[in-house]
Amino acid sequence: MFLFTKIFVGLLTKQFVEQIHMSNTIKPTESELEILNILWEKGPSTVRDVHGELEKNKDAGYTTTLKLMQIMHDKKLLNRDTGAKSHVYTAAVSQQKTQGQMVKRFIDNVFNGSASQLVMQALGNHKTNKEELEEIKRYLEEMEKKQK
Predict the structure, then answer these.
(1) pTM assigned to the model
(2) What is the mean pLDDT of residues 51-64?
(3) For labelling, which of 13, 64, 65, 104 has a CA lying 20 to 30 Å from the CA of 50?
(4) Segment 66-72 mean pLDDT
(5) What domain range includes position 17?
(6) Do 46 and 78 share a domain, yes or no?
């Protein structure tokens, strides 16, 4: 929970919001995010590698995985190395940038642009222990020092 809270508290910084607005918008679908998460975790992978990971959690056809990864390559979400017999794919977008943009859209759409409302909702709906609250306070103090 602490890491979750720390990330959302970090959203309150003006620098983060400006960074999101200045960068290109990344809008992966839920299925595309599953593939990106595999590639972010495992690194360069073939379609067969990715498909094997997807099948651990859901029923997915190999040709569906192949087609989706080809579409993701066309959308510039994936890079493809065609040097080997089996094409090797890597994520063309960073995990941090993608998550940041998705959180920004979530804040805009669900919390009317208020990151503080998101943080308060997260803290209000989760039993936060004393250690977490102390860590959050220290994090906020660090953020205030950086802004001075």
Answers:
(1) 0.70
(2) 94
(3) 104
(4) 96
(5) 2-24+112-147
(6) yes
